[in-house]
Design a protein that fits this description.
By secondary structure, this protein is mainly alpha-helical. The protein has helices spanning about 25-50, 60-65, 70-90, 105-115, 120-130, 180, 185-190, 200-210, and strands spanning about 135-140, 150-155, 165-170. It has a three-stranded antiparallel beta sheet. Helix 1 packs antiparallel against helix 3 (about 70-90) and helix 4 packs across helix 8. The protein starts with about 25 loop residues before the first helix and ends with a helix. The protein binds manganese (III) ion.
Amino acid sequence: MNSETFPFKLHPLKYPYDALEDVIDKKTVEIHHDKHLKSYVDKLNKALENCPQFQSWTLEKLLKNGFMLPNFLQCEIIKNGGGVSNHNLYFDILKPPCECNMPVGTLAKSIDRCFGSFYEFKKNMQKTAENQFGSGYAFLASDKMGGLKIIPSINQNSPISLNMYPIIPLDVWEHAYYLKYQNRRSEYVEKFFSIIDWERCEEIYKEIIRI
Ligand code: MN3
């Protein structure tokens, strides 16, 4: 898992800003990564600045052990630590659009086992994302044994705080889609499935079940 600790960095994208075009426009990716994610990184570092005893903790440890933190820091970690963790994963599991985009390997088998079929999974994930009231996510997440669940989440709350391991964070904050789709969230959600990097998701899933 990620061993990064304070001070956290804004990591560059693995692909050009226009790589997701036709699904997510260049301007949205630029603002989402360079402004929104950067702001979460800066605020997370600011919150940890005066808490040297927690500066050696990874983001995963901070999110998982919120109860051990002073109240003010716990609130900042949920908002900004969640914001960093969720967005790092979001940008990590996307790739240029592909029409016949399907899960692969162990994760594909587990999706069939846990949801019946890929199409059932997709339908449930879409419904969860579309029905999220206000800002938040639909997550595909796994437990340590590889059991998959779709988890609705408000604001930047991370499944890590529920002892689950996120694989796909479907960001339905308006900043993720509004420039191109305006109020048509369901269209963005449908198209999101063509830019999921299932090879990368498989790597992440294998790391989780190896823990
Ligand atoms: Mn976002």
